[in-house]
Amino acid sequence: MTIATHPKLTALPEQRLILPLSMTWEQFEALDSLLEYTRSVRLSYLDGYVEIMTLSREHEIIKCLLALLLGLFCLEKDISFMPTGSATLKSETKGSSKEQDLSYYFGEDRRQRETPDLAIEVTFMSGTIDKLEYYRRFNVAEAWFWEDGVFSIYQLNSKGHELVDRSILLPDLDIELLSQCLQMSEEKEALKLFRNAVRGC
Prior knowledge:
There is one protein chain. With 201 residues, the protein is an alpha+beta fold. The chain has one domain (57-199): Alpha-Beta Complex (tt1808, chain A). It has helices at 25-34, 57-76, 131-137, 175-182, 187-199, and strands at 16-18, 41-46, 49-54, 81-83, 89-91, 96-98, 102-106, 118-123, 142-147, 150-157, 160-164.
């Protein structure tokens, strides 16, 4: 099957801004409250530095399709999982607040734990804040970044997150196929192709 890439994913559909002045946690909380109902804007905080990112339709297309594909994979492989979307990881004592695009808990005890096993971000341009530091502070086992059609997978160890080739949480997942499906122009066909591959059809 020929995989047609999505024609609208070649543009730069998001913008990122690092505020030039360091903010206290209280100032960040006030800003966060002001933008609480602005769904097209996302805030991140790390040790006084605040990043503002706009969300576009293209960003949401990738995010939502990725959630469908991962849900389909877990269903077909009979994996117990709990999706928590962009639920914010936030702690004043850790000096950090981060709203990822997708997050997941796995295993039978998934509802008893506070920190997700997996956090995923969809990006169309890199920011200047070390994103992995957010997830290290919250002990997130794996962090995935999708950028320019490619996944980067990082696993947490004693030194921080390390770039790896394959997920430990989902070892049977074909990352290259997942990335290809995200770039197809027809979402229905992407889901069919992925489902058939997972089933071994």
